[in-house]
Amino acid sequence: MSHSSLEIYIDGAAKGNPGPAGVGIVISQSGETIRNISSYIGSTTNNLAEYTALLYALQEALILKAKKVKVYTDSELLCRQINKEYKVRDPKIQILYGQAEHIISAFDNFSVTHIGREKNCGADKLANLAVKKARAAGLIKP
Q1: Peptide bond into 18 cis (omega under 30)
Q2: Is residue 12 within 8 Å of 48, Cβ to Cβ?
Q3: Considering the domain boundaries, does residue 141 fall inside one?
């Protein structure tokens, strides 16, 4: 089933920066949520978690056969880097940035918009839930 136009809210959360991290993604079409993703990604920094959330979201959009993708993030850094307003200097982020650019090229129309944290509650909750579940499952050492 094709979902030609998607709105995607993404968030990455690292407890400790670096520390245990999770990603949260809310994918909607015409205002209706069609997918929630909450995944523990191990120990990393906030910025790397944000980029990992973007990659998960872009991959899911490909699976859903989207043609037009609008991404919303509360990470100003990620937004400005993807929009080529800031250079990507961190070598680890450069790798993820390159992967993101490659996947973005598959869409007919793509945009990423910076939003306030208060408008990103769903993705934020999912990112934090991933870390909580990993901790409860004993994946994170106290």
Answers
A1: yes
A2: yes
A3: no
